[in-house]
Amino acid sequence: MSWLYLLLAGLFEICWATTMKLSHGFSRLGFSLLTLGGMIASFFFLAQAIKRLPMSLAYPIWTGIGAIGSILIGWLLFKDQISPLTWLFIGFLLIGIVGIKMTSSS
After folding, report:
1. Measured between alpha carbons, how far is 58 from 5 in angstroms, rounded to an integer?
2. How many domains are there within the chain?
3. How many CA atoms lie within 13 A of 102 on its CB side?
4. What pLDDT is attached to residue 22?
5. I want to staple 35 with a disulfide (CB 3.0 to 4.6 A). Which of 20, 47, 78, 99 is the partner?
C-alpha cells in the first residue's frame, strides 16, 4: 500500500504544478484552490508512504515522479520546447528512479 501512496503523492504533485501554472500566479481562484488541494493531497500521501518506506527511497521517487510528469505535461499541454539533450537527461532521471526502486530492500 505504501507504493500506491507514493504513486498518488507523485501524481498529485504533477496536478498541483499544472494547476499552479493555470492559476496565473494565483490570480484565478479555481485553479489556485486546486493547487492548494493538490499540494495537501500530495503531502498527505507522501506522509502515508513514509510511514513504511525509508525517506531516502520515498522522497527521491516522489520528486522524480513529479519532475518527469511535470516535464511531460509542460511538453504536451503547454507546448514547452524540450531539446534532444534534455530528453536524454529526462531518460537518465527515469533510469535513476527505477534504479532506486530496484536496489531498495523495501
Report:
1. 10
2. 1
3. 6
4. 98
5. 20
Residue among 93, 90, 101 at smallest CA distance from 3: 101
**pLDDT tens-digit profile of 35-50?**
999 999 999 999 999 9
Going by the DSSP 8-state scheme, the letter that residue 39 receives in this structure is H
DSSP letter string, 9-23: HHHHHHHHHHHHHHT
Task: Determine the structural domain holding residue 48 and report its residue range.
Answer: 2-102
Q: Are 94 and 68 in contact (CB under 8 A)?
A: yes
CB 65 within 8 A of CB 10: yes
